[in-house]
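ok here's VanZ-like protein:
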Amino acid sequence: MYKKISTFAEKLKVKMKYLLHLIKTYPLSCCLIVVIWVLCMMPVPETPLSNVKLIDKWAHVSMYAVMCTAIWAEYLKGHKRLNKKRLFIGVWLAPVLMSGLIEVLQATCTNGNRSGDWMDMLANTIGATVGSLIGMLLAKMLSKDKKA
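and the structure:
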């Protein structure tokens, strides 16, 4: 029994170290992720912008584009080589999956204050794609600067 507790504690310690590493390596991205979660879970007040057609979708596209661009920028700052698999998972797939989770939680855990909307997830996916494309362009520009 003691060995099981010790093994669990060791695994937890390793995971916490990795989480701390992510926060130190990607501070802006982590802050943006927290902001997105908070904004997506709180009730939305009525504003004059509420009358603008598709304003909420543009907000979703913008949030995810900025977040994914920030992840790319912080990745490029801390790495000399591009790991395409890690970038695909961390910069595009993880935000898209996070978006889906947020939509499910909005539909089930906000007591009717928010509703899950799959069109929001589509907008988030478009934003993640735009942010990833911006990041790829940024990577190309930086690699040309290093060669010159």
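+1. Residues 118-147 form the longest helix (30 residues).
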